[in-house]
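hiii so um. not sure if this is the right channel but i have a protein structure encoded as tokens and i wanna go backwards to a sequence. like what aa goes where. can anyone help
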């Protein structure tokens, strides 16, 4: 095995896809996850999909804020780098329960950084988000844009970015890459791993998926009067496998001793409207998605997409897949796993 990587939140949506790419790329991978928003089945399936490489995957059910447990893990294993996905991510929930988000995302990260420093592991890749661009005045968003947070979730991302910059400034031995994801969608082409949100989804793709499999009656289109080609909001959707590969490129970039604390957008640089996404999903699935045209969702930006130049130039990474592949693979996962990793609800008692 080439290197030993710790992945926090590795049972989750993006984490599980990245762990698979790491294993296939020859990295030994340890996952830490408290399974708050994920299932152990994801880990089992990643192991299967990795074939022979699956034996280099270990799983540890640990909450990042449990410092003694994290200490024990770092004492047993020498990690070359950490990819830090673990965190809570539902924007609406973060508005209702800000302390939960500050506690989990900030304490979790601080504890991780303390334990890493104590054990001499100072290479980190962190999951940030395009949410730190707030409501961009122009597009595409470049990494130099002014940063702002418009909800507690976004504030945790911004705050963790600042913590990382401060930590690296204070101790130049740290090498840190902050990756700002745009809108991850799609799943592994096998359809065996994917996104499995708890409750009613907030984000577009999981919502469309649940309408397609008959779990929800229709999609509400939030806003039809935006200044876009069909009046609906524009986003930069990126295939989760491309996103996972971006992490491998970031890990390789950490070998550069001059990296310091650097930030990269991970997107495709292309904008897609809600109606274009619906049409692509209908084509891929052969299912009709009933629509209800609704008002704008409070807090939504009109048009957001990435400048991908810096990642292409410095990480030598570029997204390969378009919305056809994103919808094809999402449908493969949805049709094989209409209830995600769980079972259909038991309605026999009602
Ligand atoms: P996810 O919820 O599927 O995965 C996050 C994982 O972290 C889950 O498995 C959860 O159980 C685990 N976790 C949460 N708190 C933990 C803790 N205290 N200790 C241990 N494990 C903990 O989310 P995802 O979509 O895979 O997102 C991964 C990361 O990427 C998150 O930090 C998220 O904020 C960020 N991100 C996601 C998106 C997106 O649209 N999915 C966009 C931008 C950024
Ligand atoms: C969401 C998050 C943001 C995160 C980003 C990337 C919110 C408020 N924001 O934003 O913090 O960085 O994902 O993952 O959750 N739409 C509908 N109907 C729906 C759902 C969405 O029309 O049922 C529309 C939205 O108005 C938007 C587009 O679809 O125009 C995409 O929405 P969504 O998937 O929630 O992503 P973001 O709005 O980019």
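sure thing!! here u go:
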């Amino acid at each position: 095995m080439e290197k030993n990587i710790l992945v926090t939140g590795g049972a989750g949506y993006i984490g599980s896809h990245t762990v698979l790419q790491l294993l296939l790329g020859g990295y030994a991978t340890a996952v830490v996850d408290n399974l708050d928003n994920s299932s152990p089945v994801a880990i089992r399936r990643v192991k299967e999909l990795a074939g022979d490489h699956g034996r280099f995957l270990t799983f540890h059910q640990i909450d990042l804020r449990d410092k003694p447990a994290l200490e024990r893990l770092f004492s047993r294993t020498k990690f070359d780098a950490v990819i830090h996905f673990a965190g809570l991510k539902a924007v609406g929930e973060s508005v209702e329960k800000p302390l939960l988000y500050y506690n989990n995302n900030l304490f979790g990260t601080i504890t991780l950084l303390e334990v890493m420093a104590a054990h001499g592991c100072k290479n980190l890749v962190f999951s940030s988000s395009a949410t730190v661009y707030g409501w961009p005045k122009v597009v595409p968003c470049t990494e130099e844009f002014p940063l702002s947070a418009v909800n507690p979730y976004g504030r945790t991302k911004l705050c963790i970015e600042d913590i990382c910059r401060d930590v690296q400034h204070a101790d130049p031995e740290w090498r840190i890459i902050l990756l700002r994801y745009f809108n991850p969608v799609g799943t592994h082409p096998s359809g065996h791993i994917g996104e499995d949100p708890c409750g009613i989804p907030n984000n577009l793709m999981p919502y469309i998926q649940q309408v397609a499999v008959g779990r929800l009656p229709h999609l509400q289109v939030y806003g039809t009067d935006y200044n876009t080609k069909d009046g609906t909001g524009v986003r930069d959707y990126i295939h989760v496998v491309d996103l996972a590969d971006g992490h491998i490129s970031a890990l390789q970039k950490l070998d550069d001793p001059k990296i310091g604390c650097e930030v990269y957008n991970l997107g495709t640089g292309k904008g897609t409207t809600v109606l274009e996404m619906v049409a692509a999903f209908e084509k891929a699935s052969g299912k009709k998605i009933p629509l209800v045209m609704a008002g704008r969702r409070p807090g939504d930006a009109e048009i957001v997409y990435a400048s991908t130049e810096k990642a292409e130039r410095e990480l030598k990474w570029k997204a390969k897949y378009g919305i056809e592949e994103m919808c094809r693979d999402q449908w493969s996962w949805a049709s094989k796993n209409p209830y995600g990793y769980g079972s259909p609800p038991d309605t026999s008692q009602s």
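oh and Residues 9, 11-15, 33-38, 63-65, 85-89, 104, 108, 127, 129, 181, 184 surround nicotinamide-adenine-dinucleotide (ligand 1) (CB under 6 Å).
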